[in-house]
């Protein structure tokens, strides 16, 4: 196996172990055995099972973002990235809401917060009428500030949503849209779902 194949095997193994036995502690021995990779080789590719799991989840989400950006115009892509994020979290809810929640939510926050902040900044720059009163479209710091503020609230809300026994994507999207202090130009509930399947 080449390096890429080894990393992919380790990521598949850690996702499988974490999703099938979310209450079980992940160990290097368990992950390397499930991946068919000698334990001695494991540390050439990952520092810990938690780091490997966080990277596997983050990479899946970022790959989906790239695919969306290639297929859709900027406005549709923004709404699809939000939907894709919620679908990703719902898909892996047993892992995100399990005993590794704290560490994984921190990793998810790093991945999502950057993307969501960029989405919010793009919305504000593309549609200055969405800016709160008193903020100029030329005020970059203010736009970044507002986008970060909205993103922080969205992330906190998602962490509450993932606690549900079976997080409902449509309900989550409705709630995010309803509580956002910024009017939405794109209805995430009507975004084309086929772009994020598979």
Explain the layout of strands and helices.
Elements: H1 3-20, H2 28-35, H3 39-42, H4 49-71, H5 74-91, H6 93-96, H7 101-126, H8 140-161, H9 169-179
Name some characteristics of this structure:
single chain; 198 residues; mainly alpha; 9 helices; elongated
Main sheet record: none
Count of DSSP E strands?
0
Low-confidence stretches: 191-198
Instruction: Determine the number of helices (DSSP H or I, runs of at least 4 residues).
Output: 9
Helix and strand succession? HHHHHHHHH
Query: What kind of oligomer do you see?
Result: single chain
* Strand fraction: under 5%
Alpha-carbon Rg, integer: 19 Å
The percent range for helix content is 55-70%
N- to C-terminal distance: 25 Å
Mean pLDDT: 84
Class by SSE composition: mainly alpha
Rough outline:
elongated
How would you describe what is shown here?
There is one protein chain. By secondary structure, the chain is mainly α. It has nine helices and no strands. It has helices spanning 3-20, 28-35, 39-42, 49-71, 74-91, 93-96, 101-126, 140-161, 169-179. α4 (49-71) runs parallel beside α7. It is elongated, with a radius of gyration of 19 Å. This is HTH tetR-type domain-containing protein.
Summarize the structure.
This protein is an all-alpha fold. Helices cover 68% and strands 0% of the residues.
